[in-house]
Amino acid sequence: MRREPVFKKTFDFLRSSTSLSEAPRGSKAQRVCCIGLDGTPHSLLQRMLADGTMPNLAALVREGRLHRMTSVYPWVSSVAWTTLQTGVNPAKHGIYGFVDRDPATLKIHIPLASRIKRPAVWDRLGQAGKRVIVLNVPVTYPAGPVNGILVAGFLAPKLNEKAVSPVSMLPTLERLGYRIDTNPQIARQDRDKALEDIHDALDKRTRTFLHLLDHQPWEFFLGVIMETDRLHHFFFEPMEQGHPVYMPAFFEVYRRIDEFLGQVRERLGAHDMLMMMSDHGFCSIRQEVFYNHWLAEAGYLKYVATPAKTLEQLHPDSVAYSLDPGRIFINLKGRERTGRIAPGAEYERVRDEIIAAAEALTAPGTGERMVRKAYRREELYSGPYLEQAADIILAPEDGYDPKGAFYKESLVHKDAMMVGMHTYDDAFFYIGGTGAAKEPVSILDVAPTVLRLMGQSIPDDYDGRSLDGPTG
């Protein structure tokens, strides 16, 4: 049964009933409002536009343009949202995954906001005197000072003083019942309770977004809904398979998001610009693939003890190892704690050998390819932090989810609950106004587009370009 709407319209705050399409493309916007739907595929939005699930989005598309967008490798949210916010590739901003390692010690750490090497688009706008509100963007913890409000997103352990800037906003957020994220442990145990958790977090997030839109001054607003990613990880396959309970429940979440989008639209004036985007796409998982098992079976990886629990148990005779998701590091002399492979010709020979083997790897039982392409890092990235990147980055075939568990007894696994994985080339980008954005659209193009719309120059070292006009 469809749930009753939970949001109240505050008509006294509406600026105008004028269509957003009256904001001319290519002119300076009065304000720019960005809504992120983490992990929402362009193809899924097209399906919901066709079947009437999202009428408010359909109205917005009539006033603007909806595009397929490519993400970044690896397509995890920490890398993708950092790329989106900085306008540069990982070799310039320094974030390559949810986890990383110190090659000198092989200790694992989680890269947080302090490790990002380039300013975010909202920092540039703040320096230009623009007031910003930034909510729930991954890898913004701990929250740094901004010209406005920043509430950290994914990787913040809880809503506290370190997650909010300025700290004076914390009582307001607590009064609104704001949540940083859903509880993934619930989803791993009980899908029905997971749906309740997703709805609870979504309700509190959208209520807070609307409250801040209404009651705080802003010229740039960016709010990310993470509940879509959580929904997809645990419900994408039941949705695709037409499950009698979970398919309708899946689309009910999007109906509520569509209601929220309609309320955002009502709050924007004729010269405000609405943009929406996701950081990657999604598909159902056919198999999880444990690449350290493959490397060990092929003789490239050895352990000090079995079963090995941490990367620190890497044997000195190892040639290579993998971290999430599909990042392969050569055990290089002079870089790794117990490096074996010499830089230069031996390094390149080993890389070529592993790349060829990875691209030939097939799924047990089906014979399907599991790796679309294995990239050398310099094929994907360029910048001062290139040496921090993995030596080989695997671009998986859709459905074959790369995992970095250090020790597993099998190559593949099909989990009963975690059934959705990220994809590279099915993210989406929406921009209001007339005219068409330049194709193809990359996640690197979002930050320069925002800067141009707000009358700011685009830095020379940006890797994307404005979708709204010439760069510069």
Task: Supply the CATH architecture of the largest domain.
Answer: 3-Layer(aba) Sandwich
Compute the number of helices: 14
Number of domains: 2
Give the low-pLDDT segments.
1-26
Structural class: alpha/beta
* Assembly of the depicted chains: single chain
Strand order of the largest sheet: 7-6-5-8-1-9-19-2-20
Would you write up a description of this structure?
The chain has 2 domains: 27-284 and 421-453, Alkaline Phosphatase, subunit A; 287-414, Gyrase A, domain 2. The model is unreliable at 1-26 (pLDDT under 50). Helices cover 31% and strands 19% of the residues. It is an alpha/beta fold and 472 residues long. The strands form 5 sheets. A 9-stranded mixed β-sheet has the order 7-6-5-8-1-9-19-2-20, with helices on both faces. Strands 12-13-15-14 form a 4-stranded antiparallel β-sheet. Strands 16-11-17 form a 3-stranded mixed β-sheet. A hairpin with a 3-residue loop joins strand 12 (320-323) and strand 13. It has helices at residues 42-51, 55-62, 77-86, 90-93, 121-127, 170-175, 184-189, 191-215, 227-240, 246-266, 291-297, 345-359, 377-380, 446-453, and strands at residues 31-37, 64-70, 100-101, 108-109, 132-137, 148-152, 164-165, 220-225, 272-277, 281-284, 287-290, 320-323, 327-330, 371-376, 392-396, 400-403, 412-413, 420-423, 427-432, 441-442.
